[in-house]
């Protein structure tokens, strides 16, 4: 009760009881007005609080996470709508329900231990996984976090839980684990080495075969950067992987020689493919290494190859060259390639480069006969600004441009004595010195030299340094002229036919019998290059199904005298026509119609020639011989 106060009336005013008006009504009180204002403010706060409570209840009911509270006895005192949805029960049935009603006995014991421990320690529980059973008996998996509730004095009064149903996730994880187990079983049983890396070249996984093929323990490389060059290891696998990671393109069946402590002279086929995550984002690469040592040995023994890289031919000399190139591909030995112009010396150099460990590094060619001495020196070794008139800026030489790769010195026999001396120094010391510079620079370059001259005779005449000659001629590859391997001419003709059909968008089936006879009799001074140009000339002029004499260059037609132009009819069995027909039949697997088209003759004619030359008997002799 507020204390009543008697106040004196003002001068000249009526006398009465304090707090009352002269006419008997209550006197205005400042205290009553303040109370009314306070009450109004309290009502407004209550309305605001009720609105806030409603908002929070709406938020709690809208979230998919299951929220609930329990007292110290384990009875549910609060649940949101998400919990009702999961348990498929109305709120009035779920409220007051004990946790033992929806878990099995084992889980109930686990709950009891958790709540008891939490009550004693006050420490919350984070992301524990439980199996529970709903009213229909269906098993559910939930992930639950529990925190203790406290009163104003800090005493624990109950527990607040945040739960998520993870039944579908757990089932999906179980399927993934099962699928992963199957994949790991397959992964482990594959005899090829399989290694996956991320974009930073860090090893993600490797199978057991990696230990056999690569000599590496899986536990040592997983999680580490992909192996760098080890003793006796060329590091070619790493370069192939880097190529795929940089360009996000696969590399298929790249053959290299791979040695390690467990296996020497091992030949492997390396393939890589880019990897993407489920969203299609680039995630790394997979490397597959297959040991083909035995297979390659059998191939070399049993198979007569038609080609090696871009070299084409079945001639015995060409087969020997293929085997030699295979042996030279993965070593850094300097090679001298000799042969007449047009025999394919640059193709040999490219075959050595692209079938070896340096294939992903530069391949650089210098035509030594096309440049004057001072220009050739600058081209090979580079120069600095002001080294000579016109040197307005520093220039990188071809040796530096080919660093890590291969440098082809074409027509090496034409270089001057001064260039010979400088080249010898580079080959011995693996260093180059730019024109006008005093500092040397290290280079890692494999040098292949080619020439159409007899260097041994030039050495004897004092025109070529003997020490440089033997430094270049560690291994020599001598290409035969086309006239000495005419049995390869059909293969070359077919190769150029396919090439020019594609280039000129034509459908020429082959060459006529007369053209074939002329080709076999012609001396081919320009070798394979001349044949290529002759075929290109013919394809420009030919608008029919087969190349005839009128389509050939004039200088080759001029060679067509009566002897060279004799038709296939009447040619002795040992002559080139019989050999030619037999070769084409072999290449077409004795498809006579296709062979006739390639030879430019009719089907009846080829049947007649087979009978005349008794080629069927030769076929049987070959099959049973």
From TrEMBL:
GO MF assignments: ATP binding; sequence-specific DNA binding
Annotated keywords: ATP-binding, Coiled coil, DNA-binding, Nucleotide-binding, Transcription, Transcription regulation
Example of a GO biological process term: regulation of DNA-templated transcription
Domain PAS residues, every copy: 52-122, 179-248
Domain PAC: 126-178, 249-304
Domain Sigma-54 factor interaction: 311-540
Residue ranges of coiled coil: 32-59
PANTHER family assigned: ALGINATE BIOSYNTHESIS TRANSCRIPTIONAL REGULATORY PROTEIN ALGB, TRANSCRIPTIONAL REGULATORY PROTEIN
Protein name stated in the entry: Sigma 54-interacting transcriptional regulator
Annotated organism of origin: Desulfatitalea alkaliphila
